[in-house]
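Supplementary Methods S3. Input chains for the assembly prediction are listed below.
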Amino acid sequence: MSPGSLRVSKIRNGTVIDHITKGHALDVIKILGINGRSGGTVTIAMNVQSSKLGVKDIVKIEGRELNSEEVDKIALIAPHATINIIRNFRVAEKLTVKLPSVIRGIVKCIKPSCISNDSSEPIRSIFYLEEADPLKLRCHYCNNIMEEKDILQQF
Amino acid sequence: MKSEFNFLNRDIVSIKGFSREEIDCILEVARSIEHIAEKGSDMLRGKVLAELFFEPSTRTMLSFQTAMYKLGGNVIGFAEPGVSSVWKGETLADTVRVVEKYSDIIVLRHPLEGSARFAAEYAQVPVINAGSGAEEHPTQALLDLYTILKAKGRIDGLDIALMGDLRYGRTVHSLAYALSLYNVKLSMVSPGLLRMRSEVLRDIRSRIDVIEYRDIEEILPELDVLYVTRIQKERFPDLGEYEKVRGTFAVNLKLLRSAKNDLIVLHPLPRLDEIAVEVDATPFAKYFEQARNGVVVRMALLALILGAIKKQ
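Predicted structure tokens for the full assembly:
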């Protein structure tokens, strides 16, 4: 292994999430609900040299393929991430992380006085993408604009 | 008149749902039914308006009731949730789905922001937002515009300032959106703590220039319209700060000495001491006329939404 090269091994089947914004690998793990108790190998690499981002994080999940809703969630915290579905050691699919224009049910409005935070009502949060970078989301119900830090805090 | 106007069964959740042409149309209908506001009509006979007021209100509630009665319709509803099944824990979603079975239109006031939009998603009958927390109060904005139009003969070209609590005052949020559809010079005058919300500024600055000020004296001599809102004591962590700010944002005869003779002063009411009583008898004061205009504008809306007046 040459100095500075990647110190993680290939996975047989599963998902590689590459180009995660540095410092957000653990957030990705958290929003995917990975707690390490399901048995599959999960590899986290932080502050890896990247020609594209300078420094990046990588997460490899053995035995699990992400679905499109999970990919959308990752887009919120790692908009430059690339997702490779691995089957038999080969890249079988490349999924592009793209911020959806409407985000349903993933994040909550930070305004306590917003109806979407009334847990007794049959309501699911809806946000519209206002800006991608820096991330800004507008609440469908109260119209409040949530800033990136308020969004990232929720993961 | 353009043919795309469609007011029939329409929800009025936010002033942002309207184009300028639609607002102009509503104001024109209001003007055309002024005589009905005097004499009454039966154009909505057999129709029932349900008022669901989860927060206290005097003016808005009575204004909608008067508008409905003037058009020959009836009104049901409650004025506080403590006497309704809401007290037993019923959700807003269930309340509107029950009440719509009794009524042709729902007028909702609720403490939570976004409540009217949510209610409109559940209700089959049209929902009018009569105040959703600190968010919006669209019918107040329409009656404010109507008052300006009646007093000035136009809205375009006017120099208008909104002054007071611009952060928590729902009426100024809706009014600022509405004014941004016109060619006006708009100033926002407030203490630093109570500046206009960034999301409102962001929306209206895409259409018109807005300048923020910390006191009124500098711009008062140029103004055509001064819209005043109440500054609430509880918004200030420091009472000393409140006392200081309160004096700066009070309107009295001394302040108005530098105003144009035809300046109009508006206020959504209720007022405390932000407009001195001595101003009431001057030609500047138009705030009690606003209350009267509110009935006419709400009559126009009810008639349009319930199909008694058609605009094509």
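The mean pLDDT of chain A is 89. The beta strands of chain A are 14-21, 42-50, 54-62, 82-87, 90-96, 102-104, 126-131, 136-139, 145-147.
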